[in-house]
């Protein structure tokens, strides 16, 4: 999602490598590049201005620690400031007891409201709650059916009324129905329009007045960049928003919306949508997002995802191995087979430190998998657990055995070794991933 921003940041900081210390001049140079990168990523210009000022101030005040090169130090500073810009983390939903807790979703048409209503309901259901969805979008003809279909799919009840165009009436009867059915959470899927207009705002405000929601979330399409942020500002002026849900961060979004929305509206991003599937909704973690933007990967989310999919003991073992740097090619192969089974490989790989930002244009298909698998299978068990022993003659033997070029074997081993080193640094928490920036 943030590939281009990540690339720009990486190039900028590489330029600082080798320079002895941080000076005002080289910070200014770097900041010019960072400014351009942020503007290109469609970050609000006021936010960019303040951000660059904050980074510069932090950089000039920073002691150059012996073990860090200026490039590393700048990455750390930018990462901290990005985290601050998008934070503090606030992804909890406020629930009332006795319920039901009413959550109103507002947003423009096409922002992903209906899909998000179902994703949220699915998530809450998994957490042991009893949600009900209410089809308050009476503008878009197919919206009610869409919500009903999603409700059936995730086995969550949907309240709707095909005989009225009165949004207030449906939302009130929805909350009543939820109480009667013993549901503890009501998600109101309200109507959107193509643009923010008075009619839309009046309707949503009336629904909010009639149902007194405990939480009002704005669903925003991250792909429309600054327009998303501007509409968030307008919604925030008319409704007392509690948070924002940014959708379509898996697409070609330049990332600007994620970076600016908190700074512009003062409201936290609660969740992010990372795909069309029902389980593609994640809590928003500013620190992890900052790492992703900087191309440092997101080991924590990766391990969490693994924990969801694999049994806990095994995930723990993998985490330990990552931290100790004893994660071998055999483990790599095992995990790869599982990820392959799970699908969604590209999105998982993007979380890997040092790999995510190299994926652009790379389409990891089954053939590529088979090639990697072939190479690893041609190694002895000892070589798999300790790829450092792969001298040129061993590499030649493996290449011949798996029908690839020697450079392919060397490339795989090099990339694996780098990732393992980074995983070790990041999984053990030391230096917040800074150690992973070797060679900068
Ligand atoms: P609504 O008009 O606001 O209710 O929007 P919909 O829920 O109908 O969503 C509009 C389109 O966006 C649909 O095709 C959804 O599948 C798609 N969509 C929603 N959220 C995401 C997301 O996080 N990622 C991607 N790629 N597509 C999404």
Write a compact overview of the structure shown.
It comes from Limihaloglobus sulfuriphilus. The protein has 440 residues and is of the alpha/beta class.
Structure overview:
The protein is an alpha/beta fold. It folds into three domains: 3-86, Up-down Bundle (Four Helix Bundle (Hemerythrin (Met), subunit A)); 101-293, P-loop containing nucleotide triphosphate hydrolases (Rossmann fold, 3-Layer(aba) Sandwich), CATH 3.40.50; 299-437, 434 Repressor (Amino-terminal Domain) (Orthogonal Bundle), CATH 1.10.260.30. Helices cover 55% and strands 9% of the residues. The chain has helices at residues 3-15, 24-40, 45-61, 70-86, 113-126, 143-154, 167-180, 198-211, 226-238, 256-265, 286-293, 299-309, 312-324, 329-342, 345-349, 366-377, 381-385, 392-402, 406-427; strands at residues 101-106, 131-135, 158-159, 185-189, 215-221, 243-247, 269-273, 281-283. It has an eight-stranded mixed sheet, sandwiched between helices. β2 (131-135), α6 (143-154) and β3 (158-159) form a beta-alpha-beta unit. It is globular and about 75 Å long. Residues 430-440 have low confidence and may be disordered. It binds guanosine-5'-diphosphate (GDP). Guanosine-5'-diphosphate binds next to α5. Residues 107, 109-115, 140, 192, 247-248, 250-251, 273-276, 280 line the site of guanosine-5'-diphosphate.
